[in-house]
Design goal:
This protein is an alpha+beta fold. The protein contains twelve helices and 28 strands.
């Protein structure tokens, strides 16, 4: 991040945002001026390098590839250059493919969108409300995030995580984040389960189903889903992160599929995107279902349903999704009414795929009759009463609380309890909209006040989307007088099959796990503690009949209230 927030929020925020389809009624008439190619060349120019990792870009218009370039190195050790045929892991872009595969089976009458997922996956535990296949597709299942659960269970980021291990972890879960259909919440767990449903219903592995039904018919010859992390992948680019003036490797240790796992090239991704126009694979019913948007009970639209975000952009209707895993970054975007598609892949963590994608839309489609530069809507400066309505404490992830303060000259923003020197001023940019960091594209949009108070704000992260933060009311609390010794002991979670030992160390309550670095827990409400680092972001204790702490519920990004019970005192 570009401000003083906890590392866990920065990491989980990006992971949580990791970023679909109609057919144009008439063939587009847009011509491609040479200036579009020139502009695209200028856009990728900063990534040209013979010493650093980089990117590959491909653009299609009217079913013809009009631009395809590579920049930087696919492998630093061997100094291999990136080309449009270089193969990258595309992470969450894989969700489009998983949704499509599921809907192929729905169209054939083999999968029922309204069926309880336990019809196909009986190993899962019953939930308070049944979860349907449709709700998996729409990110409305309420299932806990399996990557967060793995971290809470003690797995390190570079540990090998097989799909079988992750499925066992999901099957152990006795709780959910919310009742199915009540909310929209991005879920890797849901898409991993969809891949398993495809495999069980089709009688093939998910890998072979995708190869037979999608990749081969579309001539996606550089695309595959490896069965193992040890598989050889022809033309694969390595993944990197910057470390000072150099770069270091990031190994993809996970073997997850459905939510991630596809390796492909920029040019092959264009073949996939163009299929939404040509319908070489899939019938009208499949493409109609891919475009459907659902609304949760709380009124939120399923933004990334079917692995595609529908986003109006400068008068154009765009469908897109991004992905990020290890050092890999990816983005696929379509503008159906212009028969325009683009793909971007990268092997470095410091690359903003969405920013480049929409810059390329500007470069190639600014001559479209529908394209329009939208001027900011006029707004009046916020009044002191409005500042007061926005001020308050907001929880954006479990245990991650931001404080918005009404100052004499406007609003400030910081993590709860931050010293005054770390307060970030918010400059107003629109009606209820405030810029936090223009360089990083971080901004806040407050909900319309009700009875003089906004109930939440939307935390916008550039062109990647937004995270909702809810207002919370904190009670007066004296952290200095909390008896931390009462929380000591060994605590076990059946959902995670793991234990943490809480013990006092130099006056601080420290959580210890046999595989993880120790981290401290700090009280901020009665029987509620948070951690500035470590996988348990928020810990809420419950007490027995004698009033003694008997256990706690641990929460982190997209995985809430995992139960731990005290098995013995320290």
């Amino acid at each position: 991040m570009f401000m003083t927030v906890s590392p866990r929020f920065a990491a989980c925020t990006i992971a949580a945002l990791a970023l679909a389809g109609s057919v144009s009624a008439e063939p587009p008439t847009l011509e491609t001026p040479d200036s579009g190619i020139e502009a695209a060349e200028a856009i990728i120019a900063p990534w040209l390098s013979e010493t650093a990792p980089g990117i590959a870009v491909a653009v299609s218009l009217n079913d013809e590839v009009i631009f395809a370039r590579g920049a930087g190195l696919a492998n630093l050790e061997h100094k291999l250059s990136i080309t449009p045929d270089s193969v990258f892991q595309v992470a969450s872009v894989s969700k489009q493919f998983t949704a499509f595969a599921t809907l192929l089976l729905v169209s054939e009458g083999k999968v029922d969108l309204g069926a309880d997922i336990r019809t196909y996956l009986p190993q899962l535990k019953e939930t308070p409300r049944i979860i349907t296949v449709r709700q998996l597709l729409d990110h409305m299942s309420g299932l806990r995030e399996r990557n967060t659960l793995a971290a809470m269970a003690g797995w390190m980021a570079d540990d090998v995580q097989t799909e079988a291990q992750m499925m066992k972890l999901v099957a152990r879960q006795s709780g959910v984040n919310f009742l199915a259909g009540e909310e929209f919440e991005y879920s890797n767990t849901g898409y991993a389960l969809l891949a398993e449903i495809v495999a069980r219903v089709s009688g093939q592995s998910f890998q072979s189903f995708m190869q037979d039904r999608v990749f081969a018919p579309l001539d996606m010859n550089d695309t595959r889903i490896p069965d193992s992390r040890n598989d050889l992948i022809q033309g694969r680019a390595s993944s990197y992160y910057p470390d000072g003036d150099a770069f270091r490797n990031i190994v993809v240790a996970g073997e997850g599929i459905g939510s991630t796992g596809i390796y492909t090239s920029a040019l092959d991704l264009l073949k996939w995107a163009e299929n939404f126009e040509t319908q070489t694979v899939g019938d009208d019913a499949v493409f109609a279902m891919m475009a459907q948007r659902s609304v949760a009970a709380n009124g939120k639209v399923s933004t990334f349903a079917k692995g595609q975000e529908l986003r109006p952009y400068k008068g154009l209707q765009t469908w897109s999704h991004g992905g990020r895993d290890a050092g890999y970054r990816s983005f696929v975007l379509r503008v159906p009414n212009e028969d325009f598609e683009l793909s971007i892949v990268s092997n470095r963590t410091d690359f903003d795929t969405a920013e480049m994608a929409f810059a390329l839309v500007d470069a190639f489609l600014s001559g479209s009759a529908d394209f329009e530069e939208t001027a900011p809507a006029p707004f009046g400066p916020a009044t002191p009463a409005q500042f007061a309505a926005y001020a308050g404490d907001y929880e954006i992830q479990p245990g991650v609380v931001f404080s918005v303060r009404a100052e004499k000259d406007g609003l400030t923003f910081a993590e709860l309890g931050a010293p005054r020197g770390e307060l970030e001023p918010l400059s107003q940019t629109g009606e209820r909209e405030f810029m936090l960091n223009a360089h990083a594209g971080l901004s806040l949009t407050f909900e319309p006040p009700v009875d003089g108070r906004s109930k939440g704000f939307s935390y916008q992260i550039g062109l990647h989307g937004a995270i909702e933060a809810k207002r919370i009311d904190l009670l007066p609390f004296d952290a200095e007088n909390v008896d931390l010794a009462g929380y000591e002991g060994m605590f076990y979670s059946a959902d995670l099959d793991t234990s943490y030992r809480l013990t006092l160390v130099d006056g601080a309550l420290v959580a210890k796990h046999m595989r993880l670095p120790a981290f401290s827990l700090s009280p901020f409400q009665e029987d509620v503690l948070t951690a500035s680092e470590g996988p348990l972001q928020k810990v809420e204790f419950f007490r027995d009949a004698e009033g003694q702490p008997a256990g706690f519920y641990a929460s982190a990004a997209l995985a809430e209230r995992v139960k731990f019970v005290r098995i013995y005192l320290d």
